[in-house]
Amino acid sequence: MKSQNTFEIQKLKPNEVEDFRDLVKIFKDVFKNEEQISEKKQLAKLLSNPNFMVFVVKQNDKIVGGLTIYILQRYYGTKPVAYIYDVGVSPDFQAQGIGSSLIAEVCKYCKDNGFEEAYVEVESDDVDAVNFYKKTKFRREINATHFTYTFEN
């Protein structure tokens, strides 16, 4: 039997769409995102994509956080890079070391599976996120300017 504070980190399999959906709900809450969650068919398609991964944190079989990764194949080398896209922990479970443990576990996974590196981008005005990542065991910090191109339908 697991204790109340035991957390389990796992990589989702393609058939674990409901767990992915639960994580996206946490992302919506944490990021104050008003967009509608994609249909299960789209989430299943993402989970089946070999260049996309989802890691979740569970407590007593309930999703309390997680992250998504896009795997970037390189043309200057043979090892892929993990682009950590979204990281979120349910507000009720923040400040308990879950996010740091998640980042550490994912970095170990990437190292063990032949990745060159993993990286995450954060908006410089998101002070909480910047402070969180500064507490993790990163190798270097790069300041960059992000340009976005949007396309109207």
UniProtKB/TrEMBL annotation:
Q: Which CDD domains match?
A: NAT_SF
> SUPFAM superfamilies given for it?
Acyl-CoA N-acyltransferases (Nat) (SSF55729)
What molecular function terms (GO) are annotated for this protein? acyltransferase activity, transferring groups other than amino-acyl groups
> What Gene3D superfamilies does the database record attribute to this sequence?
3.40.630.30
So which domain of life are we looking at? Answer: Bacteria
Residue ranges annotated for the N-acetyltransferase domain, each copy included: 10-153
The identity of this protein, by name, is N-acetyltransferase domain-containing protein
